[in-house]
């Protein structure tokens, strides 16, 4: 009897082990099916192209609320840090411009000394005098004229947005709205990701924020992704970074990535900051042909589809920049690699929502077409 009892216990243990093996195998199979049924999108682009804002907009596709953005810790501190960076950038630029910009009110020099004196403080507490000095400086006509020349220095584009909201941001019980958070800058290199569904299809977006050396770091991993979203600052045609024109630098990076694309691949080219590009073109102070001489001979293609009421000069400018990138896609990659350009404004939620839904539909359509071929 004892022997039979031992045998039953051993047999029960073997059955449990077999069940555990079966469950593990089943889970691995389900995980594998989920992995292959998920479209992985890699969000890349040069520094300052608007990737962070775009990523936060994508996270909002998970639902109508801005929970994905609001979960960021110390939201108020981030907004105030961005405001502090904005006023510091303008003040530093005043001396670097040629000719240098000067304050309209000499008595504001003490305010400048205060702002620049707190520049390197790691955890600034934002006392009332900070907002007082920043507001007074933002009203100074000399500083305003410096801001108008910001295209020479590549100042943070959201500076005006935050400087115009000083009275709101300084309030003790200030609560950032979604647009405040979208326009904030993140400085911590890390990899963000978000998952969501569109029409019951799984998508997984990865965003390596702060990892600037795109070619060396990510080129070898492209085969693990369905597509790249490459973000470009379209308004950067007149800005320089470390001696290189920023738009030309984006073109060079895009060319290198395109050559590395796998045999079957999608690249969504987001020509971002269309609002800033339009402002520059219409202002007429910084001409594209001064930086890209070939623009003087460029004519708007007949296939162009301008927005209702769009100025023809803006249409010509944005099509020229688009075609500069598309000329790269005509060589150097497989015939089964596709590039889809999109004109975007990352701070416009409706624009990004529409564009991103078009992209997800293209991803699904491309996969279905390949499965039947």
TrEMBL record:
Keywords, comma-separated and alphabetical: Cell membrane, GTP-binding, Lipoprotein, Magnesium, Membrane, Metal-binding, Nucleotide-binding, Palmitate, Transducer
Highest taxon listed in the record's lineage: Eukaryota
SUPFAM superfamilies: P-loop containing nucleoside triphosphate hydrolases, Transducin (alpha subunit), insertion domain
Membrane topology value: Lipid-anchor
MF terms (GO), sorted A to Z: beta-2 adrenergic receptor binding; corticotropin-releasing hormone receptor 1 binding; D1 dopamine receptor binding; G-protein beta/gamma-subunit complex binding; GTP binding; GTPase activity; insulin-like growth factor receptor binding; ionotropic glutamate receptor binding
UniProt subcellular location: Cell membrane
InterPro entries the UniProt entry points to: Gprotein_alpha_S, Gprotein_alpha_su, GproteinA_insert, P-loop_NTPase
Keyword Membrane: yes
A Gene Ontology BP annotation from the UniProt entry: sensory perception of chemical stimulus
Keyword Cytoplasm: no
GO CC annotation, single: cytoplasm
Binding site for GTP: 272-275, 346
Subunit and interaction comment: G proteins are composed of 3 units; alpha, beta and gamma. The alpha chain contains the guanine nucleotide binding site.
Family (UniProt): Belongs to the G-alpha family. G(s) subfamily.
Protein role: Guanine nucleotide-binding proteins (G proteins) function as transducers in numerous signaling pathways controlled by G protein-coupled receptors (GPCRs).
Protein name per its UniProtKB record: Guanine nucleotide-binding protein G(s) subunit alpha
């Amino acid at each position: 009897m004892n022997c039979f009892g031992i045998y039953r216990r051993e047999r029960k243990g073997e059955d449990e082990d077999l069940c555990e093996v079966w469950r593990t195998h089943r889970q691995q199979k389900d995980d594998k099916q989920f992995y292959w049924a998920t479209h992985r999108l890699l969000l890349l682009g040069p520094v300052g192209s608007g990737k962070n804002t775009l990523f936060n907009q994508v996270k909002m596709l998970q639902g109508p609320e801005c929970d994905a953005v609001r979960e960021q810790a110390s939201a108020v501190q981030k907004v105030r840090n961005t405001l502090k960076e904005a006023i510091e950038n303008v003040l530093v630029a005043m001396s670097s411009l040629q000719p240098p910009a000067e304050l309209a009110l000499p008595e504001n020099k003490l305010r400048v000394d205060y702002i620049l004196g707190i520049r390197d403080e790691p955890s600034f507490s934002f006392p009332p005098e900070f907002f007082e000095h920043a507001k007074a400086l933002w009203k100074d006509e000399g500083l305003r004229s410096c801001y108008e020349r910001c295209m020479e220095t590549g100042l943070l584009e959201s500076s005006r947005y935050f400087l115009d909201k000083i009275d709101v941001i300084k309030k003790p019980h200030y609560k950032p709205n979604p647009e405040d958070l979208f326009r904030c800058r993140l400085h911590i290199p890390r990899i963000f990701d978000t998952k969501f569904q569109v029409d019951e299809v799984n998508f997984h977006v990865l965003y390596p924020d702060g990892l600037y050396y795109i070619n060396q770091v990510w080129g070898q991993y492209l085969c693990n992704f369905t597509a790249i979203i490459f973000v470009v600052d379209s308004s950067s045609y007149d800005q320089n970074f470390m001696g290189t024109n920023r738009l030309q630098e984006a073109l060079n990076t895009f060319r290198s990535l395109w050559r590395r694309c796998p045999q079957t691949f999608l690249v969504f080219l987001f020509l971002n900051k269309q609002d800033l590009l339009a402002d520059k073109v219409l202002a007429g102070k910084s001409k594209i042909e001064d930086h890209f001489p070939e623009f003087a001979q460029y004519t708007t293609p007949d296939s162009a589809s301008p927005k209702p009421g769009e100025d023809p000069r803006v249409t010509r400018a944005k099509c020229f920049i688009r075609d500069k990138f598309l000329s790269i896609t005509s060589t150097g990659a497989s015939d089964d690699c596709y590039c889809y350009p999109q004109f975007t404004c990352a701070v416009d939620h409706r624009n990004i929502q529409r564009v991103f839904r078009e992209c997800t539909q293209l991803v699904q359509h491309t996969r279905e077409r390949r499965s039947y071929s």
